[in-house]
Amino acid sequence: MTPIWMRTTHRAVEIGFIIVLLFLGVVIVNESVRLGPTWGESGPQAGFFLFVLSIAMILGTLGVAYVNTYRTPDMRPFFEVPQEVEDLLKVGLPIIALVLLIPLLGMYVSAGVYLAFFMAWYGKFRWYSALAGGIILPVALWITLREGFNISMPMSAFYRSNILPF
Amino acid sequence: MEAFDLLMTGFDTLLTPTRIGFMMLGIILGLLVGVLPGVGGTTGVAILLPVTVFFEPVSALVMLAGIYWGSMYGGLITSILFGVPGNPWSVAVMFDGRPLAKQGKAGLAMSTGFWVSFFGAIIASVLFTFFAVPFAEMALRFGPPEMFAVLMIAFGTFIGMGGSPGKALIMIAAGFLLSTVGLDVVTGQPRLTFGTIELMRGFHFVPITIGLFGIGEVLANAAERYKVQIEDVTRAAKLGMHDITAGARAVFSNIGLASSSAVLGFITGILPGAGATPASFMAYGFAQKISKHPEKFGKGAIEGVIAPEAANNAAGTGAILPMLVLGIPGSPTAAILMAGVFMWGFIPGPRLFTEQPEFVWSFIASLYLANIAALLICLTATPLLAMMLRTPYAIMAPLIVVLSLIGAYAIQNAFLDVWLAVIFGVIGFILRRMDYPLAPLIVALVLGFSTEEALRQSLIMSDGSMAIFFQRPLSAPIMVVALLLFMLPLFRMFLRRYRRRQQASTGE
To answer: Do A151 and B410 count as a contact with CB atoms less than 8 A apart?
Structure first.
């Protein structure tokens, strides 16, 4: 039995997207009505522009819904081979992990850990190459950003306890 | 000759070691991002924009513009050698460049591409130099209704030109809506913030652009890795003296086609909303139509390299003109450059030409120098650039991700923006897969504020009547053109139905 993500068609994803858009459209119409979608005392009220746009978005969505799910539905699978999903997760999940690490380890250390991990795990590099990458990247970034352009980045717990300069 | 004198002042301002240095740095970076699949010129400019806040404005602008020009040249290398276009505007050159490479004429195709890119860009730069001032003078007479009408042309172009009009409409509306999040400038009311304080300052467009283009492309490439097999053809990337002269000769013997493609590209580029990608496709179609041997197209016709490359470089240059003169960018990359102009403390628009002539004219001067530099680098260092493709994916992808996140964070020192970039990366991946155009979203996001302002001011002037757009001598024709662009898909639909009915009645 093929897993569900392999049976999902373009049409199914499109339907999901349309539902999200319609929901957002309703939320925004609601917000624009709260702000006043019409003419105020001296000009258009704050909700006027929002109202026009949300209507445009809903019309566009209905048009796309008609064409892409009813007139000429795209029944190709969204993912063609399982390899796609696998590669996507292998690249995507470490990015999420990286963002979760930043508040704790700061931008520089997290970037180094992430590069080293990705090199060793996905790229099958030898451990010393990966380690070298993980050290060179944060140092190079720190020199360019901090010393070169004086741009501040989130710092690590090591920085706060004076172990590392970043 | 006024323009010529101003241009000379521009060269004077530009010719300092730092500024030339930053320009060269930009071009080299641009060539790199153009060559590397997965980072386009748009991403390169967006990622580096936050860094340039700390530069002196002229250096910042020539560096970012250098990335844009560099990526225009670099994109054709991968298109021709590997059939992997590094940028959307390098797709058209692939149709004939790739077959030429397969016939062992990669060197000829590339050097022709470089020469004609240079030729197109220089023609466009000359047009730019002499059109800028008259354009700015005309734009000075624009009031809010005229501005709004021109903005409508920009969005009309997105809807009228190719792709699904419904999807373009959704993307435009979504971009505008994202731009309205935060405090309303006129009344000060919070809009679409749903009671949260973080959303009060609104979405900055840089993290969103970085997400859609940077992270989004990394994810899109990850999912397509299984089918891309980059063979090692780095040896084919050598450009001999023979190729260089043959390329120049090929351009010279097709000088008419090259010039008309460049002019076509420049005009398409000026049209707000069109940009380099449609220009390259239009020029390709045009070349095929006027060719004496159209059947050779797609099988390695050198004209198929000349036309799109001349057009896309000219269009890239042209797209900057409305950005500087009107504050309306012609392409996503121009939109990011415009945000930069704001950040460096200037306001794009006709007054920039009278108030900051040095800034504007040194930029125009840099058009000439940057293209000369890019051509020289390409003709000499192509093997080196192609070698960059050997950088392992497991190093390249994390580097792009890290630089993207740094760019997203640096723009307002807000951690929320890092999440924003990641979320929009996922959204960008899905949208790309479902053929939603990303350019309208970015342009609308950048222009949201000025569009709403122009619309509100116009309506205040007219006391609420939409008729104001059709009553003023300047705004009326512009608005009519914009409306026609919006209607174009409808006309096309009726035409198709009419033809089908005719076929049905005659076919029996």
So the answer is: yes
